[in-house]
Amino acid sequence: MFGRVAADYRIGPRSFTNLSFYAFGLSGVWTGVGSGILPFKILEALDMRTVEVLGYTLDKNGALGLLSLLGLSTAAAIQLFAGTLSDRDKRGGRRLPYILVGGLGLAVVTVLFGYVTTFVSLALIILAMQIFGNFGQGPANALIIDHVSPTRRGEAAGVLNLWRLLGAGIVTVIVLQFMARYDPVDSREWMWYAIALMVVVLIATTMWTVLSLRPRTGISIPNIRILMMERKQPGDVVNSPDRTTISRNYFAFLVALAFGIAAMSSLQIYALFFLQDVVGLKNPAAGADRLVVIIVAAAAIVVVPAGWLADRLGRDKLFGVAGLSGALASLSLLFVNSIGPVLLIGIAVGISIGLFLTLTWTVANDLVRRASAGKELGYTSIATLVGAAAARFAGIGIDELNNVSEHFGYKVILVSVAFAFAMSAVLLGKVARNAERDRHVIESEPVAAITPEQV
After folding, report:
1. At what angle do helices 60-88 and 119-140 cross, to 10 degrees?
2. Residue (of 164, 165, 70) closest to 124 by Cα position
3. How far is CA 439 from the centre of its chain?
4. Surface-to-core class of residue 243, CB atoms within 10 Å of its CB (0-12 exposed, 13-18 middle, 19+ buried)
5. pTM for the structure as a whole
6. Are 339 and 287 in contact (CB under 8 A)?
7. Is 49 exposed, middle or buried (0-12, 13-18, 19+ CB in 10 A)?
8. What is residue 446's predicted lDDT score, i.e. its pLDDT?
9. I want to staple 194 with a disulfide (CB 3.0 to 4.6 A). Which of 178, 236, 327, 435 is the partner?
10. Are 306 and 158 in contact (CB under 8 A)?
11. What is the pLDDT of residue 290?
């Protein structure tokens, strides 16, 4: 099964790896910056000057949550915008210019990230990173539905999430190793080593996907002005990407996805501070390093088999396992006081995350129309924003409840995460069953005919 991940890597869009490899570098930057460097930057900014919002002075968790929320709001808008433009371009390789510009632009801005020191400059640079990163991500979302037949979308989603997890895990582990040696005065070079690593990986993986998928006629630069002015032709209802309505089932999917994102984001965002405050690690970056390895390894083992099973057994049957594993793991963290049990629980967290990642992306591709895949899959960024916003706003609550009773805020968030995992699994299971019923309607559209390159 895993041999298929590397098989036929030279055969353009027939290779699931070529369709997905850009995600290795992109996720490496997001998680490396968000989990490895941004917390240190926030602490330095707060040491220089207090941050007040509407008269409220933010602590470290609240500042981290607010900064991340600003970036995600930008990401949702840019993904929709770029995805819609790429739908309107009917030329071969229409997604690739966006991926190229987005990846290279993000690489440049990531270098600038190393120079910022104040909270305001951090906010501006994070916004710039989200603009470029999601300018490529929006069109890239539609690569699977462009090139893969419905009977193999689960497997393709599994390969996509395998590279996404490996990028997040490998790059973040190295970044955390560097940042464990970082000191803002005496050892700032370790941060630059981390940034250099992320930039090189991002450029290399972006170029891999763009060059391996480029059509024989080459990559055409889209005329953004013309694409924005295009309108639906008279009588063109089915094939137009401008149709804004989405099915009830897809709306229910977005709601369920928001619950899942809220759960997974909460565990990721506050992991470093949890290890520092609750587990009592003096060097939380070192503990987070080991935790990331375990979670990513468990998730990586799961994602490809999950996609293979989803194609053969149905999508809905695996959501129960994902929800149960995530909920039990979250509740188990209520009783830890050392790094050992946290690492053990990380296995269950990884299994849950791996299942959710593959299954949700498979179902999303089942629900959208090929004519407007970039735009409709962009709606997942709004669900991500809603779920992540809940997690980010929770940072303020964590700080407040921790002031009421020691570690009380962390306990409340863990119970909430368990509930979100369970609710997401229940809703997604129902959506997946409905998707199986509706999929033949979506695939019956004339534009949805499978081309010879699709596998």
Report:
1. 30
2. 70
3. 25
4. middle
5. 0.76
6. yes
7. exposed
8. 46
9. 178
10. yes
11. 82
Torsion of CA 113, 20, 70, 226, to 10 degrees: 100
Give the closest residue to 1 by CA, choosing from 318, 326, 260, 358.
Answer: 358
- Rounded CA gap, 126 and 120, in Å? 10
Q: Which of 447, 450, 433, 451 is nearest to 369 (CA)?
A: 447
Give the per-residue pLDDT at 93.
76
Sign of CA dihedral 334, 338, 342, 344: negative
Per-residue confidence (pLDDT) for residue 12, from 0 to 100: 58
Q: In the prediction, which pLDDT does 448 show?
A: 40
Q: Which helix (H) or strand (E) holds 53?
A: strand 52-53
Residue 285 in 3-state DSSP?
Answer: helix
CA 422 – CA 274 distance, rounded (Å): 22
Q: What is the DSSP letter of 450?
A: P
Distance CA 215, CA 233 (A): 27
Q: How far apart are CA 392 and CA 61, in angstroms?
A: 8
What's residue 229's pLDDT?
62
pLDDT profile of the chain (455 residues), mean per 10: 53 77 93 84 77 66 75 88 86 84 95 88 91 93 86 86 88 87 82 94 94 75 60 44 66 92 83 80 75 86 86 79 91 88 91 90 85 87 85 78 83 90 91 71 45 45
Query: Would you call 400 exposed, middle or buried from its count of C-beta atoms within 10 A (0-12, 13-18, 19+)?
Result: middle
Largest CA distance in the chain: 67
Looking at residue 239, what is its pLDDT?
43
Confirm if 175 and 37 have CB atoms less than 8 A apart. Answer: yes
Cα distance between residue 37 and residue 171, in whole Å: 12
CB atoms within 10 A of CB 453: 12
The packing angle between helices 119-140 and 38-48, to 10°, is: 160
The CA–CA distances, whole Å, from 409 to 228, 391, 404 equal 46, 13, 9
CA 256 to CA 279: how far, in whole Å? Answer: 31
Domains of the chain: 16-218+246-440 (1.20.1250.20)
Please report the pLDDT score of residue 14 as a whole number: 67
Please report the pLDDT score of residue 99 as a whole number: 93
Please tell me the predicted confidence (pLDDT) of residue 327: 92
CA distance 326 to 348: 7
Q: Give the chain's length.
A: 455
Helix H, strand E, coil C: the string for 368-421 is: CCHHHHHHHHHHHHHHHHHHHHHHHHHHHHHHHHHHHCCCHHHHHHHHHHHHHH
